[in-house]
Write a structure and sequence with these properties.
Order of helices and strands: EEHEHHEEHEEEHEEHEH
Largest sheet: 5 strands, antiparallel
Helix content: 25-40%
Strand order of the largest sheet: 1-2-6-4-5
Number of strands: 11
Number of helices: 7
Radius of gyration: 20 Å
Shape: elongated
Distance between the termini: 32 Å
Length: 219
């Protein structure tokens, strides 16, 4: 049996910054709906066609997660239809066992018709950055990956303003991310630490963008 949630497309934000989101909403509509109403945001992935249901109930990571956590961490309430046909509103104080179970294993528990998320004020500007590092052979790849891991663990450089990922290919590492700070600090402190010992990038880009434009650039 397949149950469609396509009609559940509500996205509203109240005065306390709690977003009420229908179970059929996709991430692109989620981001634009929340921001256009309130200039607020959530941590979530950037594939606009992904549905909120599986994404939020099994994690929901992206570059803002270092500061804001996973999408799952922002859930404060859930409207859910259980296997016996009953509909309940689960929170940390009501139907607590169901609330706990839905945040990680919802597809084994019930059908969520509405999510309630705690949002954050959207940053006014985000620095989107990317470096393509040429990889000549396996030894270069191993050394580069080891350095990137050390960089990620360097608490004197890394804080909750930065998030990034690495996409390997046979001939290069694509390293890209976001930084919730000024371009001058990134260029003076973070970029040199990342690029130290790596092969010279074959491509690089730094762009300061508003919140939604940053997401769309990553899409």
């Amino acid at each position: 049996m397949v149950i469609s949630l396509e009609a559940f497309q509500t996205v509203t934000v109240n005065s306390r910054g709690i977003a009420r989101v229908g179970g059929g909403v996709r991430l692109g509509n989620l981001a634009t709906g929340i921001y256009n109403q309130s200039q607020r945001a959530l941590p979530h992935g950037i594939c606009p066609g992904v549905g909120i249901g599986g994404h939020a109930t099994h994690g929901g990571y992206w570059y803002s997660s270092r500061a804001w956590g996973l999408t799952l961490d922002t859930i404060v309430g859930l409207d859910v239809v259980l296997a016996n046909g009953s509909a309940v509103h689960a929170t940390s104080t009501s139907y607590t066992d169901i609330f706990w179970a839905l945040r990680g294993a919802a597809d084994s528990i019930g059908i969520i018709t509405t999510f309630y998320f705690r949002t954050q004020p959207a940053p006014t500007s985000i620095l989107n950055w990317v470096y393509t590092i040429p990889i000549a052979n396996p030894s270069v790849a191993a050394a580069a990956f080891s350095h990137i891991q050390s960089f990620a663990l360097n608490a004197s450089i890394i804080d909750d303003k930065i998030g990034f990922g690495v996409t390997p290919s046979p001939s290069s590492f694509l390293i890209n991310g976001t930084y919730r700070g000024d371009k001058a600090t990134f260029e003076a402190k973070i970029s040199p630490a990342l690029l130290r010992t790596l092969p010279n990038p074959s491509f690089s880009s730094l762009k300061s963008l508003p919140w939604l434009a940053s997401l769309e650039d990553l899409w």
